[in-house]
């Protein structure tokens, strides 16, 4: 795995991980050096932590607790994965919420509230946003604590074959999210009945197929809004939304701000997210 530290500050460090491991690579036990949240921007992998197994796909969040052991697997993942990881110091954790149960969540499924900020952070990491990377990371971490504190999670349990089917379906849906996809089409692609596919997908990945499809579109939209000059209407249509008003309403519900305001924030307007921060940002 290639690990590149792209930012190191007193309160937060950011590491870019690019893993090319596949089914033939033997997994090994690793240790979380810091409490962290890692945004999966591409690919998929398995995560084994404290007796539970998780499947992560694009948009998922891997949660690390300082000092805990874990293992990543790629037994049915052939495309590798890429993550943007935010390593948080104990001082920053204390400010944003350091309850052990939050940081031992293990994995958070693709949630719109977190994906749009993950894409904003990725844009900052690539130097294509006027928001600084440490600012984006603190926004992301604060929103994570806020979201996870309000959630109840049921640990997934399924056979390896079912996990493989769910992950492959998610990868296919993400790659084709700009197209018209309904439950029947996604189920046919997975070789299952619509009911069985819905139950399997939601049980393993924590979101329904339609939720994942919409959130994939939101994730791609957030990247375009941060990086691209095309109109908001063009962004909405290009990522798969057939109706502009539905896109604006859905994006606002996810990000807490309109697409236009999100674009302004990506270009450096710090006031946009100011009231959503749980910690003060450095000036």
- How much of the sequence lies in strands comes to 15-25%
Rounded to an integer in angstroms, the radius of gyration calculated over CA atoms is 18 Å
Number of strands: 9
- Largest sheet data: 9 strands, antiparallel
Task: List unreliable stretches of 5+ residues.
Answer: 278-283
Helix content: 40-55%
- The helix count comes to 11
Shape: globular
User: For the residues shown, what is the average pLDDT?
Assistant: 88
The sequence of SSEs as H and E is EEEEEEEEHHEHHHHHHHHH
N-to-C span: 34 Å
State the secondary-structure class. Answer: alpha+beta
Please describe what this structure looks like.
The protein is α+β, with helices and mostly antiparallel strands. The chain is built from 11 helices and 9 strands. The protein has helices at 90-96, 100-103, 112-125, 133-149, 160-175, 183-190, 194-205, 209-227, 232-239, 244-255, 259-266; strands at 2-8, 12-19, 29-31, 35-49, 52-57, 61-64, 69-73, 81-88, 107-108. Strands 1, 2, 3, 4, 5, 6, 7, 8 and 9 form a 9-stranded antiparallel beta sheet that branches. Strand 1 (2-8) and strand 2 (12-19) form a beta hairpin. Helix 3 packs across helix 10 and helix 8 (209-227) runs antiparallel to helix 9 (232-239). It is globular and about 50 Å long. The two termini are 34 Å apart.
